[in-house]
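Side project, low priority. Logging it here so it doesn't get lost.
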Amino acid sequence: MSTLNKQIISSGNPFLDKIFNGGFQLGSIIIFLEDIPSKLYQQFLKYNIAEGMISGDRILFYYSNKSTFEEVYNNLPYKSTQVENILNSQPMKLNDTKEKDTDLKIAWRYENINYTNLIEELSKSLKYIFDLNRLLQDNLKISLKKERVITKQIDYYNKKEILPLINEIVDDFQNISEEENNNINDKEGMIYNRIYLTNFLEFIDKKKINYNEIYIALTALKNMARSLNGFVFITVNKEFLEKKIFNLLQYISDYIFRIQPLLLVPDKEKISNYDAIFHIEKYNHINNIKPIDIETNIYGIIKDKRKVVVEKIDIGVEIDRNTKVKQSDLVKDDINKNNLNNIDF
């Protein structure tokens, strides 16, 4: 199959970029779902915004509460050239467990030849990497022209209807891009656009849900994504997500990722060396041709002090030093039970 000529934009996380052959396709809507509230999804936001920041992209960041802004936007990770050191930094469980058995599992996992080869490949190909243990350099953060960044808190408690809110976002994007449309050559390469909507459900008044308006709003976001050189990045909590709204998100989006904590995973002891499971529930198709080759829909997430790893699950846990669980014995992907179809339009 011939290579498809589609422009992509980096997610900022080298492991996620590796899965998607460099990043996300321009003009996409990306949905991040969490099964239960946690701060893990914020790490992916940090990577993404930091990548946009150092690249001089336009950034529109909408948030519902100040804690999200403080945690994400004010704590963007450091741009480092110590790629090999960060990639080889030792993992640390989120629950900070120090049980001997868990330590052995993690140590064994990092001896996996597939992981070692991936680290070596990334070390050679990356010029920089983000270090979660340090903050983005001030000179990089302020070098982005003021007119290229909008951070806005939406007062959801005294909110407008959803359509006026979407119109406001569209207006913000038009205003931020107008001044630069005639000066596109002030940086090398193309100026990309990254629009973030954190906790999309807080746009919606649960007392008077209008599904038609939600659909119109999502369609407007879709049209915006396809008209700009960039993407719209939406986070949402699945715990409070109605099935009908999820179906709308499923229909309208290009990528859907779900973060599942281990406590919700059947047979979680088989993959206890991970902090969470990363499900790819939808990704871009072009005329029913896959532009990327995803080997599995299920990946493991492990976070250490300096990075977040998104890794293919294909080996299981150690039974003894010479025997490993087959992939077929691992936790089954429950998304197929929902019989969800990837729909492009």
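Brief comment: The radius of gyration is 20 Å.
Revisit when time allows.
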